[in-house]
Structure formats: C-alpha cells, structure tokens
C-alpha cells in the first residue's frame, strides 16, 4: 500500500498521502496545500478525497483550499457539523481510492467527531490506521480541548468516551497494523508523545500507558487528566476556523507580501497599531531591532510561541525577517490562524539602519560572566523555562516565571538588576523582547541558557542544583 507520511517538525504535525491507480487522498492537510497537489501531479493522480480526523485545534487545516483547487470531497466522521459542504460519514462506511479501501471508525474522546481511518490494501489486507488525535505513539489525545468550544463536553466525559473508543474500536484490531498519528513529540495535543511518528499497534498495546489491558475506566481518566497543562489560548480559535471556514491561503499571502520602506513601515505601525514581529534568530536580533518589536525566531517552535503570546489571532502584524524569509513567515503564521500580516520591512533590518532610525538592543552575557553578575548585591536570576523543567533542575536562588506566563507576572520582576535564561537561549530572547517592549532595561540575557550553565568549563556548579529542589 502506498501511504506517505508528510511530517512538519516545527508544529509536530503529520499529514498523509494515499495514492493508487490515478486516485489520491489527503488526510489532515496543512494550510498550504500546493505541495499535496504537486505530489499528486507527479503521480498523475487526481485528489479524490480530503479526510479529516477531527476539527483541529493546534493548526488550521487546508481542507477548504484543497477541495476548491482539486474538486476533492471533504470527509468528516459522524457527528461533525461543519459550516461548509462536506460529506459526514457513518461509522463503518467505506470509501475507495483506486483499489484501496478507507473504512471509517468513529472514535470519540479527543473530540466527539474524532474518527480513525482503517486502511485496507488491494488484497483486502488491513494495513494501518490513521488515528488523528485519538492515539499517538506513547500517548493519546487530550480530552480537555472541546470544552473550550462546547461547555457541556467536560474533560471527564470526553476521557470516558476515549476509554471506550480505545477499548472497543482500536485495541481489538490486529497487532501488525501500523499506527499513523496526527502528531509527534512537541505537540500540545498530548503530554508525553514519543519522538517516533509511527509504530505497530501491537507494540503500542505493550508500551502505551493508555492501552494497558488491566486499566479500569476510572484509572484511565485519572491518569489521562493528571498533569495536563492549560492548552494554548489560540486552540479554540483554530477549532472555530476549521469548523466555520477561513480565507484562502493565497489571499493571506498576497495581503502579507507588501514590501515597505522604513518610512512606510513606521507609518503603518503607528496608524494600524500593528504588532511588529521580528522572526530573526536571537543572536542577530539582540544586536539591533526596531523598538517595541517582539522576537519569535522562525527557526524554532515559532507557531507554538506565536499562539501562546499573541492573544488575538486577528492582530495586524508587521514583519521583520531575514531577506527571503517573508513568505515563509506569513505561511507559518497562517498555519495557526494568524492571517493578518499586512506587510514586511523590505530588505530586512538593514533598511531601518540605512534610514538612520532608532534601534534597540538586548545585552547578552556568557556563562563565564554570570558568576560575577550574580555576585553583585541584589542581583537576581529569572528562569523562563516551563515549571516542570525548573522543578527538575535549576540554578540555586533562581525564580521561575515561565515564558507563557510572563505578561501576568511583570509586577513580580525585581527592581534591581537581573539575568534571564531558558534552556538554550531561544525562549529567553522572546522574554527579553517582551520586557523591552514593557519598558524594562535592568536585565541581561544568558547566552546558551541552562545548557551552557551545565556544560561550560567555567565553574558555576555553586549555582546549580542537579537533583534537589531549592
């Protein structure tokens, strides 16, 4: 059976491409659909169906654009109520793609419409299951997202449904089936996903905590809900976009690809109250950036942090990027529903410098300067990593303010000078840009973060707590 996983690491997302005898199907496509169309064209195939496993929360799916551009039919599982033309399949309904069969298995729990698709090859052999967020490698989908859209769907109710779906619909299937999930490690749709992105169902029955044969429903619900952190704020908004519809990605790109000189960029920022988002890497950003801009580097968990830190997905955004990265920045914003990029600084930050406009900077120190910095009376250190990272290991005396909570805790920051750090330097520069925007100037950022604190030859072990919480 020809099934290809198309994995996008920056949002830990897997789409799937199935093709046989000139017919193709796409499962859970991303917003930018041209790569799927190109793949089908290479196979001289027509995309017949777009299968959706559920209404996604962590990204805006490309189902509408893909259907419009190819004539493909959008398929959802039972109970789905989209605001556009789609075929709502019945449980156990079958669809043909060439000689292959796709069987609908309704598996509510992550959401009520969540559906698994059983893939059957040309010899009637069951090959694999495309599970969406029902079953991951090492985990299962969190059951607390639908409640943010439909109040009656409590996480306990959905967890109970998920237990039944796994026991009655998934676990009875053959051990040799390949599990094709929608996400891997790094996604906020689960809490302990594996780095692996496929596995056999039999191995998952042996190793996945949620598939233990002796687990009661009450035990399942307790373990599933234990340790769940609050989902990113943009999740419910992405769900609604996937249910109700959205602008074509082509419109979004055209709207955002407006090159602006320094004067026009400054005027647009003042007139529209747009957020200035700088997507360059931290080490470059620190040396010179437009005052009041926020740095979220494109080369890391960009979409996740945009979603965490920009509460309004309709916020107008002006971009500062490395030259040539403008369209990529626009697309990666649109993947998570931020469709209102309105222009970018033509030729990047050099345009601003050449116009002799004001620049701001963030002071960054190496680990070998941290000891002297902290020796000054009253100096503090702020750790912006997640609480779980901090509680595992942290600098003695450090205070923990996770990056996604920083705007809520500005009043707790010290009046004296302080240093900030994360694990490697990406998140701390985001935090630094936010602090600069809010008027703070009494801090430094630690280059390389906690990784360098642990690894550097300079003795800083007096400040590190390797095993004891302090």
From TrEMBL:
Q: Does the keyword Metal-binding apply?
A: yes
Q: For the Rhodanese domain, which residue ranges apply?
A: 270-361, 375-462
SUPFAM superfamilies found in the cross-reference section: Metallo-hydrolase/oxidoreductase (SSF56281), Rhodanese/Cell cycle control phosphatase (SSF52821)
GO biological process terms, alphabetically, are: glutathione metabolic process; hydrogen sulfide metabolic process
Under PROSITE patterns, the record lists:
RHODANESE_3
- Which UniProt keyword terms apply here? Metal-binding
User: Matching Gene3D superfamilies, A to Z?
Assistant: Rhodanese-like domain (3.40.250.10), Ribonuclease Z/Hydroxyacylglutathione hydrolase-like (3.60.15.10)
Cited Pfam families: Lactamase_B, Rhodanese
Molecular functions (GO terms): metal ion binding; sulfur dioxygenase activity
Xref: SMART domains: Lactamase_B, RHOD
The keyword Metal-binding is annotated on this UniProt entry: yes
Q: Which InterPro entries match?
A: Metallo-B-lactamas (IPR001279), Mito_Persulfide_Diox (IPR051682), POD-like_MBL-fold (IPR044528), Rhodanese-like_dom (IPR001763), Rhodanese-like_dom_sf (IPR036873), RibonucZ/Hydroxyglut_hydro (IPR036866)
This chain belongs to which protein, by name? Glyoxylase, beta-lactamase superfamily II
Q: What species was this sequence derived from?
A: Psychroflexus salarius
- Organism ancestry: Bacteria, Pseudomonadati, Bacteroidota, Flavobacteriia, Flavobacteriales
